[in-house]
């Protein structure tokens, strides 16, 4: 009996030494293609039975794809608990036996990591003026499905997966998206449409895949895609050039990703565009980007509110009348109204005053209108 125990100990020590040596050797990087539940055969079941209780013991197997472009079926996974593995996971495998030696951290494109905002956005709804209707629509479509998901479950409806913000430039689309992320305490991941149009084939689609994978890992997350028309324009038969084909390939990947996650997931997509008329209908159909929110130029009352928001930290003279100034700023968007406040402050500094007077705002309006007119003449 003692000799048998000694022999078993030697076998265990040799096996442990082989395991240690395998871990030290260079291994291949592979990804899990599929995890399978296989039942052991009858002989194995008899050996695994405990006492008189008989049951079939499921056995986890896996299919892996290695970096050397091999697809391998593993009846026995290896040194990693197969229950912890899922498709698309990266693993290190032995280059001879292909047994899984360890799990590897997920790999994301470096450009996607740079797009992540670690600190939560600090914008609030009070920082957005003249958009009360749009704020209510965004709360229903984005904020409540994350913060009060149980209400939607109780009623039995599915919240929207995505929201499209469309309207003129400078009307507050990006600021409202950041305010929604702050209200949900969510990570804010901003992608710009032109950045997704890459020179090399498949690069834009890969950035999108990595962005959505990162968003799911950091959930709750709001993915904000600015200038969606850069990759989401309507498809046509003229897309024979390499650039057009690559844009269409990126858009098809976005469609696939929008179909790939549920409306109850803590990942919401907010897209913004100035040209809703050029977008492909496949993007706008129900089940992908369900809600469309229009951003128009602010009216007189909204312009006065926006001016008050951007000047609340300024030292104002008592004669400042925002209602009168708002009547002078017809056809101005929120960004231009902010520029009026900045210009008024600069005029006060030039005149060596410690406060901003009404005439400073009036001159600021004139200066911004002159810049606006010159830019229009430039593009004419």
UniProtKB/TrEMBL annotation:
<dbReference type="InterPro" id="IPR027417">
    <property type="entry name" value="P-loop_NTPase"/>
</dbReference>
<dbReference type="Pfam" id="PF16450">
    <property type="entry name" value="Prot_ATP_ID_OB_C"/>
</dbReference>
<dbReference type="InterPro" id="IPR003960">
    <property type="entry name" value="ATPase_AAA_CS"/>
</dbReference>
<dbReference type="InterPro" id="IPR050221">
    <property type="entry name" value="26S_Proteasome_ATPase"/>
</dbReference>
<dbReference type="InterPro" id="IPR012340">
    <property type="entry name" value="NA-bd_OB-fold"/>
</dbReference>
<keyword id="KW-0963">Cytoplasm</keyword>
<comment type="similarity">
    <text>Belongs to the AAA ATPase family.</text>
</comment>
<keyword id="KW-0067">ATP-binding</keyword>
<keyword id="KW-0647">Proteasome</keyword>
<dbReference type="InterPro" id="IPR041569">
    <property type="entry name" value="AAA_lid_3"/>
</dbReference>
<protein>
    <submittedName>
        <fullName>Proteasome regulatory ATPase subunit 5</fullName>
    </submittedName>
</protein>
<keyword id="KW-0539">Nucleus</keyword>
<dbReference type="Pfam" id="PF17862">
    <property type="entry name" value="AAA_lid_3"/>
</dbReference>
<dbReference type="InterPro" id="IPR003593">
    <property type="entry name" value="AAA+_ATPase"/>
</dbReference>
<dbReference type="GO" id="GO:0005524">
    <property type="term" value="F:ATP binding"/>
</dbReference>
<dbReference type="GO" id="GO:0005737">
    <property type="term" value="C:cytoplasm"/>
</dbReference>
<keyword id="KW-0547">Nucleotide-binding</keyword>
<feature type="region of interest" description="Disordered">
    <location>
        <begin position="1"/>
        <end position="21"/>
    </location>
</feature>
<dbReference type="InterPro" id="IPR032501">
    <property type="entry name" value="Prot_ATP_ID_OB_2nd"/>
</dbReference>
<dbReference type="GO" id="GO:0016887">
    <property type="term" value="F:ATP hydrolysis activity"/>
</dbReference>
<dbReference type="InterPro" id="IPR003959">
    <property type="entry name" value="ATPase_AAA_core"/>
</dbReference>
<dbReference type="GO" id="GO:0000502">
    <property type="term" value="C:proteasome complex"/>
</dbReference>
<feature type="domain" description="AAA+ ATPase">
    <location>
        <begin position="159"/>
        <end position="299"/>
    </location>
</feature>
<dbReference type="Pfam" id="PF00004">
    <property type="entry name" value="AAA"/>
</dbReference>
<feature type="compositionally biased region" description="Basic and acidic residues">
    <location>
        <begin position="7"/>
        <end position="21"/>
    </location>
</feature>
<dbReference type="GO" id="GO:0005634">
    <property type="term" value="C:nucleus"/>
</dbReference>
């Amino acid at each position: 009996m003692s000799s048998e125990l000694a022999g078993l100990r030697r076998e265990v020590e040799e096996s442990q030494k082989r395991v240690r040596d395998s871990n030290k050797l260079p291994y291949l990087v592979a990804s899990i293609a599929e995890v399978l539940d296989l039942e052991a055969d009858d002989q194995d079941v008899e050996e695994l039975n405990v006492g008189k209780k008989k049951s079939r013991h499921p056995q986890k197997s896996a299919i892996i794809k290695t970096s050397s472009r091999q697809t391998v079926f593993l009846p026995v996974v290896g040194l990693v608990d197969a229950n912890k593995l899922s498709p698309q996971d990266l693993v290190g495998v032995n280059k001879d036996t292909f047994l899984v030696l360890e799990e590897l951290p997920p790999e994301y494109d470096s450009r996607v990591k740079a797009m992540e905002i670690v600190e939560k956005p600090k914008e609030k709804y009070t920082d957005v003026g003249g958009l009360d209707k749009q704020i209510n629509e965004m709360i229903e479509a984005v904020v409540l499905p994350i913060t009060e998901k149980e209400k939607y479950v109780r009623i039995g409806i599915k919240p929207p997966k995505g929201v499209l913000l469309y309207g003129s430039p400078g009307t507050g689309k990006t600021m409202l998206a950041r305010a929604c992320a702050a209200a949900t305490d969510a990570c804010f991941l901003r992608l710009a449409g032109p950045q997704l149009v890459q020179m090399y084939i498949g690069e834009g689609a890969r950035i999108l895949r990595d962005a959505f994978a990162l968003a799911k890992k950091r959930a709750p997350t709001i993915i904000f895609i600015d200038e969606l028309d850069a990759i989401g324009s309507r498809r046509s038969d003229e897309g024979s050039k390499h650039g057009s084909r690559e844009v269409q390939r990126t858009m098809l990947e976005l469609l696939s990703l929008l179909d790939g996650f549920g409306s109850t997931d803590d990942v919401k997509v907010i897209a913004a565009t100035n040209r809703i008329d050029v977008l492909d209908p496949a993007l706008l159909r129900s089940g992908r980007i369900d809600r469309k929110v229009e951003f128009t130029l602010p009216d007189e009352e909204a312009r006065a509110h926006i001016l008050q928001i951007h000047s609340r930290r300024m030292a104002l003279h008592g004669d400042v009348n925002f209602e009168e100034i708002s009547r002078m700023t017809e056809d101005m968007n929120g960004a231009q109204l902010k520029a009026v406040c900045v210009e008024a402050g600069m005029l006060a500094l030039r005149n060596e005053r410690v406060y901003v007077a009404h005439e400073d705002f009036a001159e600021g309006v004139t200066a911004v209108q002159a810049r606006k007119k010159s830019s229009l003449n430039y593009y004419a």
